[in-house]
Design goal:
Length: 303
């Protein structure tokens, strides 16, 4: 009888060991070397930041960071993904943005049997949740958690550095023709975290088109103009015509590097530091400078 019990226990142990081995084999087949196509820059940056970069076989035409992404095949944009190019890469996973603009293409990929993960990158919470979901889906959950911890730690340090600074009214420009500003989304959230009052906020749209009359009336203390990075003549040829604006009068019109500032994703902590140091330079002077403070772009001088 005891021999029978021993045989039963041994059989159960072998079955349990076999089941455990099967789980490991399945996990290895799912996560090891899976082929991933990314449909947006924020997604590509996240995949590389959490260690899934070697699995990426295709990216959108706007993916330019990290440098390795420039060498990968292009599959259109997140608004107009190229289905033929995507299918040709034989992906096991396609990661895109949850937007109604590409519903038709996404549904077509799903009908063909492709696994599709959609995330958001239009708010800080969306960026954080997207990093976590991409990490879990690709088998890099621990790395995703570590990345999120690093982002939050950097943001806490910057917020600590800003204690006691006065809030400043800020206009953040992303385009001149027409004049388009930040009015919502993750950039508005970062401006508020940097103790700024975003004069483009509260207008009901994420990217409002502002009139010069509105800008003069709201009297921003600081103007952040992304166009200055590509056109050195912009400060003298554009803003100097409006000396009554406090930011112009006090020489507080600055450029900002479009990369990474206009790239939602894992570098939002770096973006916060850039915005905070431009709008509150007194908190980032020689006496307060941290070793991790970013290098500003060449066009970051005043007007």
């Amino acid at each position: 009888m005891s021999g029978l019990k021993t045989s039963i226990v041994s059989a159960r142990s072998m079955a349990a060991a076999g089941a455990a081995l099967l789980v490991l084999v399945i996990a290895a087949n799912v996560w090891a070397g899976q082929r991933i196509v990314s449909l947006a820059p924020s997604i590509t940056e996240t995949l590389f930041a959490i260690g899934a970069g070697p699995d990426v076989v295709g990216v959108s035409q706007y993916c330019d960071y990290p440098p390795q992404a420039l060498k990968l095949p292009k599959v259109g944009s997140f608004l107009t993904p190229n289905l033929e190019a995507i299918v040709g890469l034989r992906p096991a996973l396609i990661v895109g943005l949850d937007t109604s603009s590409n519903d038709r293409e996404i549904r077509a990929l799903q009908r063909m049997g492709y696994r599709v993960l959609l995330v958001h990158d239009d708010s800080l919470d969306g960026i954080y949740a997207g990093i976590r979901r991409i990490g879990e889906t690709t088998g890099h959950a621990a790395q995703a958690d570590q990345l999120l911890g690093s982002i939050h730690g950097r943001m806490r340090a910057i917020r600590q550095q800003l204690i006691g600074v006065p809030p400043r009214k800020v206009l953040m420009v992303v385009g001149h023709d027409p004049l388009v500003a930040v009015g919502g989304g993750y950039l508005d959230q970062l401006l508020r975290m940097a103790d700024c009052i975003d004069i483009g906020a509260g207008l009901g749209v994420e990217w409002p088109r502002l009139s010069m009359e509105y800008i003069i009336a709201t009297a921003p203390d600081v103007i952040l103009d992304g166009q200055m990075g590509t056109d050195p003549q912009t400060p003298g040829g554009f803003w100097s015509r409006y000396p009554n604006i406090p930011a112009v009068r006090n020489h507080r019109v600055f450029s900002y590097p479009q990369n990474p500032v206009l790239h939602p994703g894992p570098r939002v902590g770096q973006t916060l530091e850039i915005l905070a140091s431009l709008t509150h330079p007194e908190a980032f002077g020689p006496a307060n400078k941290r070793s991790s403070t970013h290098p500003l772009s060449d066009g970051s001088g005043g007007s």
